[in-house]
Design a protein that fits this description.
The structure is a single chain. The chain is about 5% helix and about 30% strand. The chain has about 350 residues and is mainly beta. The longest helix has 23 residues. The N terminus is likely disordered.
Length: about 350
């Protein structure tokens, strides 16, 4: 071996030893570059990347979104005017396996929603469950046709709506204002402004309530006061002998018709009339009148149809008159009935 070859071999060995020494001085899992690394190629990582924070995108005006991860996700990008008003945007479905809350769980800051909440399938998903219910509901619009179901109690103030609850049903297995009900029917009427579909009502007129028109008219009752009949005709105000019978009617009702029940066993004439009289002018209106003329004899009913008058008890009174054209026990008035309709209580 020549001298030159020996020095070459020693130099190579020394280089290898120096390389090995440098490699053992720095662990293989630690990289400490002297400056920022700029890498322009694709990076493939087969394990987890752990970083204290991450920036993706650009902070330049009107260029890409910027996301900063450090406990909170925010969008630091700005619009073309330099205002930081661009929201964080997810371009795909979002799944969250934990709880959603703002600031703190159960705190004073509610979750704020600035859009319509709509399920992806009709009549499929629920708001709350049977074991986890919402406490109060405040609605400024309406509950559309459907049903609101509660297995607990629906109490005063727990469901607040400034709009309307439209066609549908509210079903509860508990109580409504302390009343145990299985369902609130469609015929429910509000206490504050009650109103309902037109219903029929009646009021009766006993014969014992009637008063004679003329002074000196003698009359009597038959069958313990069940019927009234004239005994002597004073003959001062012909024709006939008139009795006036007051009628008490609910304010706001509409009088539709009336019936007078009489006996006419002598085939004479008995006339029945329904009146309303003004308390201001002290004069009656044109009455609805009919008689037993042409009805024959016996127990008869005088029908007074087509009255159609709204009751106003503030300045009007109502009564029925019975006019006998003949005295005697063969002619009497048993009583009357006034029929009306109403849509509100009285």
């Amino acid at each position: 071996m020549t001298i030159s070859k020996l020095f070459t071999a020693l130099f190579i060995v020394a280089g290898l030893l120096l390389t090995a020494s440098l490699a053992s001085a720095s662990p293989a899992d630690t990289l400490q570059p002297a400056s920022t690394i700029t890498y322009n190629e694709e990076v493939i990582v087969n394990d987890t990347i752990k970083v204290n924070s991450a920036y993706v995108g650009s902070t330049e005006a009107d260029v890409g979104g910027v996301t900063f991860f450090n406990g909170t996700i925010v969008n630091n990008s700005v619009d073309e005017d330099g205002a930081s008003i661009i929201p964080v945007t997810f371009g795909d479905d979002v799944r969250i396996d934990g709880e959603i809350y703002r600031t703190e769980k159960g705190g004073d800051d509610p979750i704020k929603v600035t859009d319509t909440i709509m399920p992806t399938a009709n009549n499929t998903y629920s708001l709350g469950t049977s074991g986890s219910r919402f406490k109060d509901g405040y609605l400024s619009g309406s509950l559309a046709a459907a049903s609101v179901t509660a297995s607990g109690a629906v109490t005063a103030g727990s469901v607040t709506a400034s709009g309307t609850v439209t066609a549908g049903s509210i079903v509860t297995a508990g109580t409504v204002d302390g009343v145990d009900v299985s369902a609130i029917p469609s015929t429910y009427v509000s206490q504050s402004s009650p109103s309902w579909d037109s219903r029929s009502g009646k009021t009766s007129i006993p014969a014992s309530s009637c008063h004679p028109e003329e002074v000196g008219l003698t009359y009597a009752f038959k069958s313990n006061g069940s019927a009234i009949y004239p005994v002597i005709d004073p003959g001062t105000l012909p024709p006939g002998m008139v009795f006036y019978c007051p009628v008490q009617l609910p304010d706001g009702a509409t009088v539709t018709s009336a019936e007078a029940y009489v006996s006419d066993n002598g085939a004479s004439i008995i006339v029945a009339s329904f009146y309303s009289a003004s308390l201001a002018s002290f004069s009656p209106n044109a009455p609805r009148t009919d008689s037993t003329n042409g009805l024959g004899s016996g127990n008869l009913t005088i029908d007074l149809d087509g009255i159609d008058e709204v009751v106003d008890n503030s300045d009007t009174v109502y009564y029925m008159s019975i006019n006998f054209f003949t005295v005697g026990t063969d002619y009497d008035f048993h009583g009357g009935v006034v029929n009306y309709t109403y849509t509100q209580p009285y």
